[in-house]
Design goal:
Distance between the termini: 90 Å
Number of strands: 0
Number of helices: 11
Number of domains: 1
Length: 229
């Protein structure tokens, strides 16, 4: 039983993390699949490129919650089942990995920024707030979500180690930071080339295609009325 409960908690966190809310929210709101436009990343920033802010906000909140909730549940109720700091950290990492490689979506997930933020807030609220503040400052000055995410991913492990020391949380945060950098390699290349999209920039093919039947009919009617006897 010493390994059963930690394994169940970790598996549950991974399955929750595997819920790709960018795709789910887009389908529910009648938007195109975010994997088919912009960066192709199923995340809040790419959903924002659809021009639908409500969908982007919903995606951001839900992606953060799927990292936050499993960690808080494991921390608050896990002690009676023998779940310590190591398991809680592993639960957070599992939720993050679920977003990157979701079992429900052919293991093709997003970059994990919002989910990582939720995990950090669950593991250490002050660490999460410091990392979010870092992201916000970089995003406000440079208008690049990817650059803000890269800088935040680098700083988060240093914040944890410098202020709270080494341990399971630092290890989990360090692994997430490295994976975030790896998932942003394409963005790093675009930033260096000057071709990276800025925050809020609408992507071609993001909005659902309009139906053309009515338009053609309307044009035909106009042409019909134009030929007077």
């Amino acid at each position: 039983m010493q390994t059963f409960y930690p394994a169940i908690a970790t598996l549950a966190a991974y399955l929750i993390g595997s819920l790709s809310f960018a795709v789910i929210v887009s389908r529910a709101m009648g938007l195109n699949d975010p994997r088919t436009y912009g960066s192709g990343n199923p995340g809040a920033t790419n959903v924002l490129r659809s021009g639908n802010k409500q969908a982007a906000i919903a995606t951001l909140v839900l992606d953060a919650l799927k990292g936050f909730v499993p960690v808080v549940l494991a921390d608050q109720f896990g002690q009676r089942f023998g779940l310590g700091e190591g398991t809680v950290s592993l639960v957070g990492l599992a939720a993050f990995l679920g977003h990157l490689w979701p079992v429900f979506f052919q293991f093709k997930g997003g970059k994990g920024v919002a989910t990582a933020a939720g995990v950090l807030l669950g593991l250490n609220p002050w660490l999460g707030l410091a990392t979010l503040l870092t992201w916000a400052i970089i995003a406000a000055f440079f208008r690049y979500s990817s650059l803000a995410s890269i800088v935040a991913a680098v700083f988060a492990p240093f914040y944890q180690v410098l202020l709270w020391g080494f341990g399971p949380v630092a290890t989990a945060v360090g692994v997430m930071g490295l994976l975030l950098l790896w998932r942003h390699m394409g963005n790093i290349q675009k930033l260096l080339a000057g071709t990276e999209s800025k925050l809020g920039q609408k992507a071609h093919g993001a909005a659902p295609a309009r139906k053309t039947g009515h338009t053609h009919g309307h044009r035909h009617n106009k042409q019909g009325h134009s030929h007077k006897p």
